[in-house]
Design brief:
- This protein has helices at residues 15-27, 65-84, 100-115, 125-131, 151-164, 207-212, 289-296, 299-307, 309-320, 322-330, 381-394, and strands at residues 6-11, 33-36, 53-54, 88-89, 93-97, 121-124, 139-143, 147-149, 168-170, 175-180, 185-189, 192-201, 220-232, 243-246, 258-261, 267-270, 274-275, 341-354, 364-368, 371-376.
- The longest helix has 20 residues, at 65-84.
- It is α+β, with helices and mostly antiparallel strands.
- It contains 11 helices and 20 strands.
- The protein is globular.
- α1 (15-27) packs parallel to α11, α2 (65-84) packs across α11 and α9 (309-320) packs across α10.
- The chain has a single domain (6-394), classed as 3-Layer(bba) Sandwich (FAD/NAD(P)-binding domain), CATH 3.50.50.60.
- The structure holds flavin-adenine dinucleotide.
Length: 398
């Protein structure tokens, strides 16, 4: 018996796929929707391994999708958490300059925050010493609307809500091929064929592979950047009152090793940003030849390496030596020592890179007649997730 096609199929049960599913059912409550993921449950990759920060939106290029959707995303996340009793805290964050050069760059960030319509406040070194005694620096920006949340917790809540609304979840199902026909899209999976009228692909670290199946990935490739965290010893659970971020290095999209209060009541430090050989190789345990080949056979990779040689070497050093990692933290906090660093989960970021070796800064979405592919959704995409879903409807992409 041939199976009736679904109205919508979403590949990927991370926060992007699940928030799109949620918004889809708001608009089309009787739609037949299936969500497929290769893992045994939701949020097992980027979404469940990130810093858990609700970014206010200070850093992003004014007018970009990142800037717009991050700002819109903040209240949508906090409203959802309030309504569905998912823990979050608007603890605020300090971006700390430790010398004159950084203080000058901080001015630029302050202006950018204002341009993006974000609440930002300048803080002197003396004011900082009062509100954050463990942190040293010459000046800072306070972003009071930055917060923390458990993104995996949001995803589990969404799965419960969607299941109650009749959505089919098919976990443990690997998508192996996609074919778009005039009236439907055929999804080949490890568990058989699924047909759908509309396909939405939110595959994170595998976004380019799935886009490739439909001829949409000629101009970008996902490169995986490992982010290693440590959990601080229990005596440091309350070492800071805000999140503490360094001033980001120019030209790099990553925000630097930061101190993050977590909703569980402890504090983490991290993440660094090291190119990873495997896209999902969290334990550095096995060599993944197909991922490595996909990286090194891409001309954009070599151009990127050439451009960021010295930053790459420094990151690698910090990955191999706790002392080198600690040096980065000691620039703004000397109260922590190497002995305070306890093992914590690693995350791997999916970063799209173009053929010229540029990291694609903004969110990248591609569309065909019967599919939408979220091709580049790096940070702050978790913060922006509900707003990204709204954007797809508002721009007629769904
Ligand atoms: C270290 C780190 C720190 C970060 N910190 C923050 C932060 O503090 N705040 C913030 O806003 N953002 C942060 N981000 C970014 C944020 O986590 C991501 O932007 C967001 O989680 C992306 O969600 P996603 O659903 O697109 O991807 P993912 O969560 O990676 O989900 C993709 C899903 O697709 C599935 N999939 C892939 N291929 C297939 C296939 N062939 N068949 C079936 N299923 C498939 C995967 O199993 C996975 O479940 C961080 C990211 C990292 C890695």
């Amino acid at each position: 018996m041939t199976q009736k096609p679904y109205d919508y199929c979403i590949i990927g049960a991370g926060i992007i796929g699940l928030t799109i599913a949620h918004k889809l059912l708001d608009r089309h409550p009787s739609a037949r929707l299936i969500v497929i993921d290769k893992e045994t449950g939701p949020a097992q990759h980027q979404t469940g391994r990130n810093s858990g920060v609700i970014h206010a939106g200070v850093y992003y290029t004014p007018g970009s999708l990142k800037a717009t959707l991050c700002r819109k995303g903040v209240p949508t996340i906090t409203d959802f958490c309030t309504k569905h009793q998912v823990a979050f805290e608007q603890c605020g964050k300090l971006i700390v300059a430790v010398d004159k050069d950084e203080a000058a760059r901080l001015n630029g960030l302050y202006e950018r925050g204002l341009q993006n319509g974000i609440q930002v406040q300048r803080i002197s070194g003396a004011q900082m010493a009062e509100i954050e005694p463990a942190i040293k620096g010459v000046s800072a920006i306070l972003s009071p609307t930055t917060g923390i949340v458990d993104y995996a917790g949001i995803c589990h809540k969404l799965v419960d809500l969607l299941t109650a609304q009749g959505v089919t979840f098919q976990f443990g199902t690997v998508v192996t091929d996609l074919r778009e026909l005039s009236d439907e899209t055929i999804i080949e999976t490890s568990q058989g064929v699924i047909k759908t009228a509309q396909l939405i692909v939110c595959a994170g670290l595998q976004a380019d592979r799935l886009a490739d199946m439909m001829g949409l990935a000629d101009d970008f490739r996902i490169l995986p950047f490992r982010g290693e965290y440590f959990r601080l010893a229990e005596k440091h659970n309350a070492i800071v009152n805000h999140l503490i971020y360094p001033v980001p290095k120019p030209g790099l999209p990553f925000l630097g090793v930061h101190l993050t209060k977590m909703v569980g009541g402890y504090t983490t430090v991290g993440p660094n940003a090291v190119l990873s050989l495997g896209r999902e190789d969290y334990h550095r345990s096995f060599f993944q030849p197909s991922d490595t080949w996909r990286t090194i056979s891409y001309p954009g990779f070599w151009k990127l390496i050439n451009r960021f040689k010295s930053a790459g070497v420094s990151e690698l050093k910090r990955s191999l030596s706790k002392a080198a990692y600690m040096k980065e933290v000691h620039r703004y906090c000397t109260a922590i020592s190497v002995e305070d660093l306890q093992p914590y989960r690693t995350g791997i970021r999916a970063q799209a890179v173009d053929l010229q070796g540029n990291m694609i800064d903004d969110f990248l979405i591609k569309k065909t007649a019967r599919s939408v592919h979220i091709c580049n959704a790096p940070s702050p995409a978790a913060t922006s997730a509900f707003a990204i879903a709204d954007h797809l409807f508002e721009t007629g992409q769904l």
